């Protein structure tokens, strides 16, 4: 997915980390649009000057640099890609203003509600972790219900309709992380019985062209999550 290009597309760089679900969101959008770019792997323990200069406020990945201009925050970058390369199929945002607003609402719901709960499962332990699991399930069930009843999504292959769209990228970028998190914590976040539509959607999304080729290695994601959980949950060493 990381390809050197020429002309305008050759001026696209992505600063990120291969295992980051937020970086994966951007890589999906770039792949679906067929945009050539240069991927620069960041060491988050020793951030590059390019990253610090490109995102001086948050100092976080991902950062897309297009013709020397940085764009930060994963879903803002996805919107930027759609607006900058709107002539390239597929359309990542609906054409209808109302449908576009609905897509933005659910993408914001994923970042504002689902992601913090998943982070709680990731770093939590004991009762704190169980509460985060329960809250994650409650929020994921709302997405299941949206797939079932929302006219914008109901009966369609993806949240975006027949093709992957904005909400699919917001949630689907997290899919590898969610699967590994379930294994690492021995918890169930998305199960086929209680979330048949969401479960089927995730399987379909992960096998889609433009997604499966760039999916972070599941074994490496699991190894990373397990190692980080040891770090987060270990008691502080006595001095």
Layout of SSEs?
Blueprint: E1 12-16, H1 21-33, E2 38-41, H2 49-54, E3 63-66, E4 69-72, H3 74-84, H4 97-123, H5 126-149, H6 166-172, H7 175-185, H8 196-206, H9 218-233
Parallel strand pairs: 1-2
Antiparallel strand pairs: 1-3, 3-4
Q: What's this entry about, in short?
A:
By secondary structure, the protein is an alpha+beta fold. The chain is built from 9 helices and 4 strands.
General description of the model:
The chain has 239 residues and is an alpha+beta fold. The protein has helices at residues 21-33, 49-54, 74-84, 97-123, 126-149, 166-172, 175-185, 196-206, 218-233; strands at 12-16, 38-41, 63-66, 69-72. A 4-stranded mixed sheet has the order 2-1-3-4, covered by helices on one side. Helix 1 (21-33) runs parallel beside helix 3, helix 4 packs antiparallel against helix 5 (126-149) and helix 7 (175-185) crosses helix 9. The longest helix has 27 residues, at 97-123. It is globular, with a radius of gyration of 18 Å. Mean pLDDT is 94; it is low at 3-9.
């Amino acid at each position: 997915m990381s390809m050197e290009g020429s002309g305008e597309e050759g001026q696209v760089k992505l600063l990120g980390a291969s295992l980051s679900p937020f970086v994966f969101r951007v890589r999906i959008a770039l792949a679906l649009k067929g945009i050539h770019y240069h991927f620069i792997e960041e060491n988050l323990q020793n951030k590059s000057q390019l990253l610090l200069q490109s995102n001086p406020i948050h100092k976080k990945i991902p950062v897309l640099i297009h013709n020397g201009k940085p764009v930060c925050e994963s879903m803002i970058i996805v919107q930027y890609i759609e607006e900058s390369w709107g002539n390239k199929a597929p359309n990542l945002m609906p054409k209808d203003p109302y449908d576009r607003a609905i897509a933005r609402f659910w993408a914001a719901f994923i970042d504002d509600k689902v992601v913090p709960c998943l982070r709680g499962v990731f770093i939590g332990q004991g009762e704190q972790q169980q509460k985060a699991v329960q809250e994650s399930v409650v929020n994921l069930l709302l997405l299941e219900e949206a797939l079932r009843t929302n006219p914008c999504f109901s009966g369609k292959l993806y949240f975006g309709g027949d093709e992957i769209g904005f909400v699919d990228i917001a949630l689907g970028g997290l899919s590898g992380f969610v699967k590994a998190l379930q294994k690492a914590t021995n918890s169930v976040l998305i199960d086929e019985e209680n979330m048949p539509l969401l479960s089927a959607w995730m399987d379909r999304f992960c096998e889609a062209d433009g997604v499966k080729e760039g999916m972070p290695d599941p074994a490496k994601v699991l190894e990373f999550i397990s190692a980080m959980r040891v770090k987060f949950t270990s008691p502080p060493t006595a001095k």
